[in-house]
Amino acid sequence: MKLLFFSLCFLILFSSCRNRKESNNSSTDSLVESNYNDHSYSNLDSINTTHLDLELDVDFNNQTIYGIARHTMNNKGTGSAIFDIKGLQIKKVTLGPKGNERETDFMIGKMDADSILGQPLIVSISKKTNQVNIYYQTTKASEALDWLDTAMTSSKTKPFLYTQGQAILTRTWIPVQDSPSNRFTYAAQVKVPNDLLALMSAKNPSKKNTTGIYNFTMEKAIPSYLIALAVGDIAYHSYGGNTGVYAEKELIDACAEEFDALPKMMDAASKLYGKYQWGQYDVLVLPYSFPFGGMENPRLTFANPTLLTGDKSLVSVIAHELAHSWSGNLVTNNSWDDFWLNEGFTVYFEERIMEEIYGKEVADILAEIEFFEMQQEMKEISSGDHPEDTKLHLKLKNRNPDDGMTQIAYVKGAFFLKTLEAKVGRAQLDEFLNSYFESFKFKTINSKQFESILQERLLDPNKIKFNYKEWIYEEGLPKNCVKIVSKRLQNMTELAQNFSAGQPVFEPKIHYEYQKIKGKRKKKKVKVVDQIKRDDFIVQEWQVFIRNLDDNITIDQLNKADNAMHFSSWNNSEILTEWLVLNIQKGNTTKLRPEIKKFISKVGRRKYLMPIYRALSINPADKKWAKEVFEGCKSNYHAVSKNSIAEVLK
Ligand SMILES: [Zn+2]
Predict the structure, then answer these.
(1) Distance from the alpha carbon of residue 409 to the mean position of ligand 1, in angstroms
(2) What b/e sequence results for 352-369 when a residue is b if at least 16 CB atoms lie within 10 Å of its CB, and e otherwise?
(3) By CB neighbour count within 10 A (0-12 exposed, 13-18 middle, 19+ buried), where does 463 fall?
(4) How far is the CA of 110 from the centre of ligand 1 (A)?
(5) What's the CATH code, domain 2-140+166-217?
């Protein structure tokens, strides 16, 4: 029925249009509705891209990409091909192989009411067409593109460009069937200014050439949201083997040092869940405006420079992005309703990698901290407009898929697997996960399919009952969720309570003990000074200290803690954010304004900016000041961060 409906309506549409047209026809509206659920207009059931060839000219002067997207398609006999576009200018569409093309009619549907999906690009083809070429250019509305002026880069002399495709932004820089359910290979020829290097989620060069023309291939089929491009004055450091790191020249040494556990992580990950399938694995550290911690573009993770702490305390983000090479990139959620299959598995896997390298205690500390954050968010979601968003499987129809990108998918998802592990045993779960990755590699999966293989391969053979339906389809947290309690974090909580109660926990404590002195027979009484130093604890322990300070803590006490541990000048964004937010909430903003301004003017990561701006928006004087700061530095932020903050300060 659906197929018939499609062909009928295109017959009517194309009989009356030549080349580009805006549709006011109700037939396209019904088309839109039919595929809305998938967050894509494309008619994938009838025709799908199997390979994409891109020809891109990156023009920094006009901040525009001029492109040709050549889609090789598997056509099951339809007379139209539908692509997703948003903020793109379509110049012409041709059919047939390069050099032997003929121009065809196309039509652009209306923007959906909430401007979430963009517009359908409907191309007239014959039932035998398997090559569609779209000539286009990007515009100011191409949200995936972040064009950075020289002032926003480390070099201060060369500009930078990067893309962010997830969840449905690839359509803003490439006309594409933008659904995670379809996978295709791609190749690209990219022209950039010849003093810059281009990199993609593909086979990459390690250094600049003199022509500014770079060729890329991604030979494994990937979903559209994983196509990525970065252009800048970028250098490379190889760790040997198949890992390395790219960054602007000024940052490359710091990056190489910070992420030197990467080869070990690769070993640990491959030992856990099977061979790494993508050949090379590199990390590209982007400029500060990047709104996320990391993005798992295949072969080339994009990472935020706030990970460069100098003490390797945030490398779990790299473990996370590497783990996506299995969960997410190899086995992909079929739709954004099942984002938990990408992220929950990845957080579980990330913590297993961290456990292999840094031990169970550290992995448990990370898990406990995340669990706390997830519970906070779960409370907020439960009392908000969409309490059903605390389910793992979501129904995001008519909503932005970004609404599902909460700690529920990540941490509730990971605790689902941890609870399953506690029930079936680690060896059995690992065997199951290995078979899961093997059977579904380069495929997509949904919750229903996952349920049936879980039952078939893990629960039935081991005669185990497990409440997976409750976990996946019901709100909140099931009662059998495992509890992770770290002794070290308990001690830190106690330290915070003692400090809040007025005990001089950071003052030196003197005691005497008998020590053996070399060459002397008798032990000697020696004076020992004990004093807590910042290095005695890892960053995550200090986070817990800050979180557990009493609600009634005074500004005087906060200043005392800061004088002792220097939280407000710590080059660690996690600590800095916790500390600044707490101080703003307690009315200590004026004193810390220089530190706050310095931090939020430099960093563009939404995770840090949002809580700070939110805290500042409570008190009218703080809010007024925050607005001024925002006006001055908003050009340093990616649209993703800018829009969210503008909303908070409204
Ligand atoms: Zn992730």
Answers:
(1) 10
(2) bbbbbbbeeebbbbbbbb
(3) exposed
(4) 33
(5) 2.60.40.1730
Task: Output 435-441 pairs: Cβ under 8 A, ≥24 positions apart.
Answer: 436/331, 437/273, 437/274, 437/326, 437/327, 437/330, 437/331, 438/274, 440/330, 440/331, 441/277, 441/330, 441/331
Q: How many angstroms does the Cα of residue 327 sit away from the middle of ligand 1?
A: 9
**C-alpha 465 – ligand 1 centre gap (Å):** 29
Cα 410 to middle of ligand 1, angstroms: 7
Ligand 1 centre and the CA of 419: distance in Å?
20
Contacts of 4 (CB under 8 A, 6+ apart): none
CA distances from 544 to 2, 370, 484, 496, 568 (A): 55, 11, 15, 8, 16
Phi, psi of 490 (to 5 degrees): -60, -45
Domain ranges of the chain: 2-140+166-217, 332-473, 486-552, 566-650
pLDDT digits (tens, 9 = 90+) for 108-159: 999 888 889 999 999 999 999 999 999 999 999 999 999 999 988 988 999 9
CA of 418 to the centre of ligand 1 (A): 17
Distances (CA, A) of 591 to 576, 588, 594: 15, 6, 8
Q: Which two tokens stand for residue 628?
A: 């001024």
If you measure from the C-alpha of residue 320 to the centroid of ligand 1, how many angstroms do you get, rounded to a whole number? 6
Residues 567-589: pLDDT tens digits?
A: 999 999 999 999 999 999 999 99
Q: Which amino acid is at 444?
A: T
Residue 612 CA neighbour count, 13 Å, CB half: 31
Question: Same fold for the domain at 2-140+166-217 and the one at 566-650?
Answer: no
Question: How many A from CA of 346 to the centre of ligand 1?
Answer: 6
Class of domain 332-473: mainly alpha
Q: Spelled out in words, what is the top-level CATH class assigned to the domain 566-650? A: mainly alpha
| Residue 162 Cα to chain centre, angstroms | 14
CA separation for the pair 577, 565 (Å, rounded):
15
| Ligand 1 ion: Cβ-proximal residues, 5 Å cutoff | 343, 346
